[in-house]
Amino acid sequence: MKVAWVSTYDSADPLAYQGRGYYAPISLENQSILVEHLGPLQISAPVRLVRKLAETKHLMLHDNQFIKPENRRWYSRENMPLVVRDYAHHISQKLSKLSNVDIVFSGVSSGSQPISYLDCKQPIVIWTDTTMASAIDFYPQYFRNKICQKSINDIISNERAAINRSKLLIYSSEWGARNAIDQYKIDPGKVKVVPFGANLECNRNLDDIKRLIEVRQKSKCKLLFVGVDWLRKGGDIAYRITQELNALGIPAELSVVGCAPLIDEPIPGFVKSFGYISSATKEGSEMLNKLFEESHFFIMPSRAESFGYVYCEASSYGVPSIASNVGGIPTAVKDNVNGKTFSINAAIKEYCDYISSLYFDHAKYKELALSSFNEYETRLNWAVAGKHVKQLISELIS
Description:
Blueprint: E1 2-6, H1 20-29, E2 34-37, H2 45-57, E3 60-62, E4 65-67, H3 81-96, E5 103-106, E6 124-128, H4 149-165, E7 166-171, H5 174-184, E8 191-193, H6 206-215, E9 221-226, H7 235-247, E10 252-257, E11 271-275, H8 282-294, E12 297-300, H9 309-316, E13 321-324, H10 329-332, E14 339-342, H11 348-359, H12 362-378, H13 382-397
């Protein structure tokens, strides 16, 4: 079987789209599927000129005229139909040079699916986290008071075209799948759920996890937060939880990776800020390994999250996750299986009660930590994802 993998970025780069853009096609290659990478896609010179003009003059293209976005809201040039249609042209050119392609795959994208206006003889499959329509009023940059209505209209129009062209839609969560069905009124039969995996190489086995659990510090509860957006990822909630645990007499420490803690006071001693750590370097990878291995809990109570692959990564270390029950997170974190999800409006005390009950009951904590690793091994890794997707596309072309 041969598939053409379409992406606007370089999907052969291990850091592509936070790792998802790299590991998804690799998961198919590991199932003996030949993957032809068609990215990174380039747009033609005239379209680049139009987009550049829109960027430099802060204009948007509407009815083939440049106008100012209303009320200073931002205009998504990545979702311009002119750009997306040009992507389709370049995909067609690349496809014409390949033989015996069975499926055209379109992975997770930062804008409209590049196959939105692609006409080809092969069945099209989309494998992503959720619909772009779901980002509206969910992710801060897509709040209606920030993005102009023209871009919202473009997003919906482009995405509808992509969905109508696709024979199979694969989403990483039940939330994403339900959104696609409800928003675009499509046949539920062509929508499937396949969770993403952990974006890392894991050689740990059950004995390794048992050893890690036993050597985790008994005198201090270590919490790990990893995220580039402090507020959206719930860093402030994680901070207040750690603060309250210490106030209750439970020694707790919060390690922050990916961003600086945004708090209105000097950083207290129980917060360790590491900034951005690149997993692409040997030193960075070793540091992240050490932080995960030593942590009792991974904590990221996001306000908006379409899936959250880092919960999968935490499970691969036997580290239970403390999360919110928004978006696609409940697919990645199953309550009392590999952690616990809380309402985004949950009281800090609810988090603290749950954490302390496990921290002081080693047998109960060990059971949850081992169960977390089992979730990684059986459900939250790319090998399982690739096998499931191969089955789905085999059924499609047969």
